Amino acid sequence: MGLTKDFFIALSKNQVLNSGAKKWGLKLGASKVVAGTDIDSMLKSVKELNADGISATIDNLGEFVYSREEALEAKKNILATLEAIQQHGVSAHMSVKLTQIGLDVDPGFCLENMREIAEAAARYAIFINIDMEDYSHLQPTLDILHTLVKEFDNVGTVIQAYLYRSEKDLELLKTVRLRLVKGAYKEISEVSYQSAQDIDSNYLKLIKIRLQQPGFTSIATHDHVIIDEVKRFVKEHNIPLDRFEFQMLYGFRTELQKQLAQEGYTFTVYVPFGEDWYGYYMRRLAERPQNINLALKSFVSK
């Protein structure tokens, strides 16, 4: 299992394959977990979720951005997506990766791009979640976030439970809206828990700390054991249901998504779309190797 995960994480970082994938369209089974390659396809998926009482956080996919031109193009696409959310009146906010808008080019340039996105989103009363990436980008991402939250109240980020430092980061972000996740990248033992049991244990610990802090919390997991424990905890501690939400990825455990929404929990689905789908999909295969058969069948059928 570890070897399989390492293999797909390595594939996710392959720029040659990523470039090729933009020309393929959604193949290898990716259409099951990516909501199309354009805004119209994404909106159709979001409207279907909204009809089931489920909101969306939209990710206009993009990776391997190392030039100002690519970063500015990504910013333009994000701004167009925000405008589409506003125009169509869908229940949705946006998730943005800072590397997509120039973090690896120049942090100051990235901050200005993010500031423009946050301003546009604020005009439309749309929240922007800054996605967390691998450990090398963690502190630069938090540095930009701490600057932005002094100016905007519609910006938040992600805390990853597999990192040792995450409990300390929670304390610094008590009032900021956060998404809590287990973590999808491969990190070294010096900075992160390595076993699933340790990660799960720390994840639950962080969730319980966070639910007693003032900021809104998105609990992003497909793990029904953790979901059941969260339900028990909020009931025991009289935590209002409007203080948190559950999140899952598009295309995963759809019946459980609908069930939780029907039970009265706020529910949001992470909806990725765009031509730059390859890296995202490889990380999903790394997390869920049972999807490999699906990918292979799709590839053969093409």
UniProtKB/TrEMBL annotation:
Keywords annotated in UniProt: FAD, Flavoprotein, Nucleotide-binding, Oxidoreductase, Proline metabolism
Sequence positions that bind substrate: 97, 283-284
UniProt cofactor(s): FAD
Pathway(s) this gene product operates in, as recorded in its UniProt entry: Amino-acid degradation; L-proline degradation into L-glutamate; L-glutamate from L-proline: step 1/2
Catalysed reaction, written as an equation: L-proline + a quinone = (S)-1-pyrroline-5-carboxylate + a quinol + H(+)
InterPro entries reported in the protein's UniProt record: FAD-linked_oxidoreductase-like (IPR029041), PRODH_bac_arc (IPR008219), Proline_DH_dom (IPR002872), Proline_oxidase (IPR015659)
Listed Gene3D superfamilies: 3.20.20.220
Source species, domain of life: Bacteria
Domain Proline dehydrogenase intervals: 43-288
Residues the record lists as binding FAD: 132, 160, 182-184, 221-222
Cofactor binding: number and manner: Binds 1 FAD per subunit.
Pfam families: Pro_dh
Enzyme Commission (EC) number: 1.5.5.2
Molecular function GO terms recorded: nucleotide binding; proline dehydrogenase activity
Any one biological process term the GO annotation gives: L-proline catabolic process to L-glutamate
Protein name: proline dehydrogenase
Organism the protein comes from: Planococcus koreensis
